[in-house]
Structure formats: structure tokens, C-alpha cells
Please model this.
Amino acid sequence: VGIEEHNPQMASRILFQDSILCSPGCDCCPYSYFCLRGCYGSQKETENDPFMPIESVCRLFKGKINFLIDKYEVLGVWDVLRKLSPANARFESAQETLRAVEKIKEARA
Model:
């Protein structure tokens, strides 16, 4: 097909890794459930390591997530999720989201 490999280890790491558990700091970050993750190219240019998160990007995402959690609290979104019936097809997903929100709230306290 005309493609030559130059760094198959990098390709396999990107394609087969768990982006949360295999990135320094992300594995223990309370925001990891909602985080969009960084860009490998930008991280390579900034940190000289494609898997090392950029601190300013982390702060940006944390600020965004904190704002949304607080806004959704005011709007009553979390109350709606808490009231879902276990028979609802989205019940488990809602519970997982609520656990992630509580984890973040505990970390902020």
C-alpha cells in the first residue's frame, strides 16, 4: 500500500493504550471521566513527550468541567439523573456520571 513504518512502537502505544491509565497524572485525576485529553503532537512540542499532559491544558479543562458541574447543579440536571429509575436504559450511565461528579466535588473541597 506504500506505507513504511518508522516507529511501530509509537503507533501501537497510541492505538492500543488506555488513554487514562497510560498517561502520567491522568490515571489518578478526578477529572479523567470528563476530560477530552490533550493532543499528542502539541504535547510532543511542549513537553518533548507525546504522552505528558500540558499543565495549562489541564487547567483549562478543569475550569470548564468545574463550571459545567456548577451550572448543571443550578439547572437541576444532577437531580434529574438522581431520580432516574433503575429500569431506565440510561440508569447505569447516569450513576457513573454522578459518581464522577461527586469525585470531583470531593477533590475541590
Summary: The mean pLDDT is 90.
